[in-house]
Amino acid sequence: MTGLTTVLPFLRGAVLGLKQGVLQRHILPDSLHVVQASFACSRVQSLSLRACSSSNSSGACTLYTEASPRVDWLASRTQIRSYASSADAMSATISSSKVQVLKELEQALGSPLDTQPQTPQPKPLVIVISGPSGVGKDAVIKRLQEIRSEIHFVVTATTRPKRPGEEEGVDYYFVSKPEFLDLIARNELIEHALVYGDYKGVPKKQVREFMSAGHDVLLRVDIQGAATIKKLLGQDAVFIFLVAESERALVERLVERKTESIDKLVIRVATAREEVKHITDFDYVVVNADGQLERTVSHLCSIIDAEKARVQQRYAQL
Q: What are residue 263's phi and psi, to 5 degrees?
């Protein structure tokens, strides 16, 4: 039977709930018993205490009290503090008990409990997104930037003419062919390729600066560019391939652009057919269905979050 001297300290504050008809529960110091006090009447009439050893696997022990004039005597013997409510008393009791248990654990272990995160600090990622022309890479990346502003989009340098609505330094860095060839000569591009008669390349400087500041970097490249980066970084970068829901859906988007002649469309479709064959060179494939932009971006966010949770994280060094 649990001694009265063991139970009494846990009645602190509980006595104040005698007139409120509340059910209170307190944890004993040995954490093996639970003292339960049930008060059902609003006036103090009599007092009786009964404690028992636990007789079941839960280790529960019930303390029954009946309100009585002896409450004042009990309060004086146990030096009950005045709490604003019985809930405060219960919370303080549990908190005090927890602190004591933690101190005893640290003493037994011989060292303080570590409060540092147990997961490694996530490393900045190099995220490479590619896919056939017309699949919607630009729209997907723009929306991803709005949701994940901490990701830096590496702006590609290109020699092609600026399209309506495109901004310098936002969509591309538009440079002349002599300027682009100078970047190649100075080895200032991660990768570059000649696509449909125009040069495109990824400047190294941006990637280094933002990764050193702890930012993930996002690269939008064509299939040739992705293959080049794959050779350079291998498994240290995340490669994601965007596709339309079908070939016909992709062609319809190209036609809706109204920026290509029939001859150029034939070339683009033929090129797209070859590009899709390289899906197996990527880590992930995401379908960007028409009218499902939010779903597409949600999938990309899930991929990034999963990569951040890897035990062996990727880390690209340039």
A: -60, -45
| Amino acid occupying residue 51 | A
φ, ψ (nearest 5 deg) of residue 202 = -110, 115
- Kindly state the tokens that stand for 185: 């000569």
**How far lies 229's CA from each of 57, 101, 161, 224, 275, in Å?**
61, 54, 25, 9, 16
Helix, coil or strand: residue 185: helix
Note whether 140 and 293 are within 8 A (CB).
yes
Domain end among 43, 74, 109: 109
Query: If you count them, how many residues does the chain have?
Result: 318
pLDDT (tens digit per residue) in 57-92: 444 444 444 444 444 544 444 444 444 455 566 566
Chain centroid to Cα 103, Å, comes to 32
Which of 51, 80, 109 is a domain's end point? 109
Predicted TM-score (pTM) of the model is 0.63
Question: How does strand 34-38 pair with strand 61-62?
Answer: parallel
Which tokens is 55 given? Answer: 């007789």
> Which three-class secondary structure state does DSSP give residue 189?
strand
For residue 40, the tally of other CB atoms under 10 A from its CB is 11
Give the residue numbers annotated as catalytic, written as ranges.
163, 257, 268
Question: Which residue did the predictor score with more confidence, 264 or 260?
Answer: 264
294, 180: one domain? yes
Three-state helix/strand/coil letters over 40-98:
CCCCCCCCCCCCCCCCCCCCCEECCCCCCCCHHHHHHHHCCCCCCCHHHHHHHHHHHHH
* Cβ-based neighbours of 38, under 8 Å, separated by 6 or more: 23, 24, 64, 65
Residue 30 and residue 287: Cα distance in Å, rounded? 57
Is the distance from CB of 229 to CB of 148 less than 8 angstroms?
no
Any idea what DSSP says for residue 168?
B
Per the structure, the complete domain to which residue 186 belongs is given by 126-308
Whether the Cβ atoms of residue 295 and residue 302 lie closer than 8 Å to each other = no
Whether residue 44 is contained in a domain is answered as yes
